[in-house]
Amino acid sequence: MKVLVIGGGGREHALAWKAAQSSQVDEVLVAPGNAGTASEPGCRNVDIGAEDIDALLELARTELVGLTIVGPEAPLAAGVVDRFQAAGLACFGPSAKAAQLESSKAFAKDFMARHRIPTARYGVVESVDEGMDMVNSIGLPLVLKADGLAAGKGVVIVDRLDQARATLEDMLSGQAFGEAGHRVVVEEFLIGEEASFIVIADGEHALPLATSQDHKRRDEGDQGPNTGGMGAYSPAPVVDAAMHQRILQEVIQPTLSGMQADGCRFTGFLYAGVMLTDDGPKVLEFNVRFGDPETQPILMRLQSDLVETLQRTLDGHIQDIELGWDERVALGIVLAAGGYPDGYEKGKPISGLDSDFPHHVKVFHAGTRLDEQGQVVTSGGRVLCVTALGPNVKAARDQALEWMARIGFEGAFYRSDIGHRAISRD
What is the DSSP pairing of strand 267-277 with strand 231-234? Predict the structure, then answer.
């Protein structure tokens, strides 16, 4: 059969790479893909944008695609799954209605309050004065979040009143995040350690994937502005067996039950960004798709057939699935373009991609494309994710850094401290 992966980032490269390993799959189509998927064995790029649902439907029909996997959030929010299902095509992801868990932070916070899912205190505001009243009510420091989709960057931590006012003005004016910022969630700042908890869901039941931890801040030591993610590793030792069970019981299962009760049955990848506080796990955010860059280390460890797993989930057999995992740690480091997450230049030639990478190291492409001469050049802020397996977090990081040093382009930068919390714990 053929599989279609929608999207063109690092997550989609990892999904396509893993799908191509399935014994059931003859070819993986990636729309639009990147320079990495263009050269991945068993994969073929198709020049269709991730939000061009009409063209994606026609592609799936013409190519007789047996399963479509949706990578990014925007097409999910636009209803790509609804359209595919209406056409009788298997598509893995939530409906547009269920995707509101990510496409509207206000929806998600109100949902959690209604269903008593632990999260930070908050208020939703539409004016600067209303926002400042909420700031004074909650107290500093706090978090300001653009309500809509902002590519993982619509979150600002503030610790001064003048900074809070300026950020509210910037967001609500539409200058910072466009339509996404016309409503703002003002949220209590939670103290603890964050983990990514991702499950495969069939509407009622959850199949947990390996735990992971993302690093959102741009700079070493978790400093600087928030980004889409500068690196991740799996498993996350902060989520021990007891905490794993608490997150399932207090967050994941109530979310699935609540969505079903609200008429928004959730099927797909459900991602809970969880802060592990002294009072227990509290949800920072929901995503309705696989995380990026968490996908890369998680799929490096997954030994089971991804395509078979998703098909059996859609067929109602999720409770019969047992996933197999490599016992080693996987750690991925993002190589980013100078200026990211703000303005950055594109079209920079990338060197070192022809290195003889060992089996335990994989370079996943994100913001890359092929130029007219067939040279791989940069085309985004997060350009590559060098991911390595090792017996522990430090060994995996050392391997990723060793091979990262062989790759480069003008203005490239990365964090060398990914996994520092786990290493300190060890």
Answer: unpaired
